[in-house]
């Protein structure tokens, strides 16, 4: 392979790499737009982790004192969740 052929091949490869980089940049922007909502939710949950930890400790102490209460809370939570799903299905969009 002569020097000119190597230079031509090198230039061809560099052009291909540059095209791929531009494609990646455009895909990255689309990906960031598509996942921005999840990023915001994750940031909010991460910021509230201290409160989740404190709430979990309080809940553990409360359940240790009154174990039957946990069962009732789980049943009520499931009932509320089921009701919410049913209401969402009934509301037209």
TrEMBL record:
Supply the name of the protein: YqjK-like protein
One Pfam match = YqjK
InterPro entries in the record: YqjK
Q: Taxonomically, what lineage is the organism? A: Bacteria, Pseudomonadati, Pseudomonadota, Gammaproteobacteria, Enterobacterales
């Amino acid at each position: 392979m002569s020097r000119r052929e190597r230079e031509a091949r090198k230039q061809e490869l560099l052009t291909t790499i540059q095209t791929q980089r531009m494609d990646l940049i455009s895909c990255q922007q689309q990906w960031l737009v598509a996942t921005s909502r999840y990023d915001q939710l994750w940031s909010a949950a991460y910021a509230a982790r201290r409160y989740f930890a404190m709430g979990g400790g309080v809940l553990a102490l409360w359940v240790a004192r009154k174990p039957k209460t946990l069962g009732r809370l789980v049943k009520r939570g499931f009932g509320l969740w089921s009701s919410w799903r049913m209401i969402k299905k009934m509301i037209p969009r």
